[in-house]
Structure formats: C-alpha cells, structure tokens
Write a structure and sequence with these properties.
167 residues, mainly alpha, two-stranded antiparallel ribbon
C-alpha cells in the first residue's frame, strides 16, 4: 500500500477537522436531554476523531516515560493499521467486524500494555481527562449541521413546517 493510498484511507475514516473544531458550531445545550442527545449524535458522527483525541491525550501523558512511549507507538501502529487506515470494515474469516468492537479491543490492549509498563496512574488520569474533553466537546457541539450528512437528508424537511409536520 503506497503512502498516498494510506493517507487517503486515513482521511476517509476521519471527519474533517475544520468541521470538528469549528468554534461557530459550539453552544450551550438548552437542557440535559439536549446535551445527552448531542453527545450521542456527536459520538456517532465523530467517532474516529474522538478516538484520535483520546490517543493524543494518552500520548501526551507518556512524554516523560520513554519505554511506555515506545510501547504506545508500537500499539499506535496497530491502531493505524486496524482502525484508522481502513475505509471498509475489518473482516475476519469472511465476517465483518464492527468498528466499535475493533476500537474496544484495541483500547483494552493499549491500556493493559501501558499498565504493565508501570504508568497505570498516568493512563487512568489521561483517560479520565480525555473522556471529560470528549464529553464536553460532544455536549457543546451543535448537531443541526450534521443532518445534511444523513443518507435521509434530502427526505427531511428544512423547517418544522415541512410536509410531514401536520400543518
């Protein structure tokens, strides 16, 4: 696989960072149910971006632990090969494996391997920090502009007074 092909497939799984980090799409949710709805929708829509953010926070927490950093970089190569560089689902014995299962297994392997390098406190704190960052971003990022990415976007009304609103 050439470098160009790898880069193209890497960007195919990630949503554009310009959209992900757009400050104009941030607002305070109106209620707790609005916040949980945003979190659910954004976690689904920006799944790969959030996974990379968690890995980045984990990487930054290991900067002063060279052996753990080497272990992390080896595991990150597995992340790149098994998750980020795939434009189609991973298949094993002809069965497609859900990306959430791949991320879950890679996450558990990464955490366990890093705990065995005696940096368990760094790992726990960095995962907690990453979880807070991801939840805050997902709660404050509005989801109104994500409807156009839906395969049903053309069927959805543009306003509440659409063809199926009963008005």
């Amino acid at each position: 696989m050439s470098t160009i092909t790898t880069a193209q497939s890497l960007t195919a799984t990630l949503r554009p960072w310009r959209d992900f980090l757009d400050p104009t799409s941030l607002s305070i949710p109106s209620s707790l149910s609005d916040a949980t709805s945003r979190i659910s929708h954004n976690l689904t829509h920006y799944f790969s971006n959030y996974a990379l953010v968690v890995l980045l926070v984990l990487f930054l927490s290991l900067l002063y632990h060279p052996f753990s950093l080497i272990v992390f970089l080896l595991l990150f190569a597995a992340w790149l090969f098994l998750f980020f560089s795939r434009s189609e689902p991973l298949s094993l014995f002809g069965f497609a494996i859900d990306q959430r299962l791949v991320v879950g297994l890679l996450g558990v392997i990464t955490v366990v391997a890093l705990i065995f390098t005696s940096v368990w406190l760094n790992v726990v704190v960095s995962i907690l920090v990453a979880a807070v960052l991801v939840c805050l971003h997902a709660a404050f990022r509005v989801t109104d502009d994500l409807v156009q990415d839906s395969p049903y976007g053309a069927l959805l009304p543009d306003s509440p007074r659409g063809p199926y609103s009963g008005v």
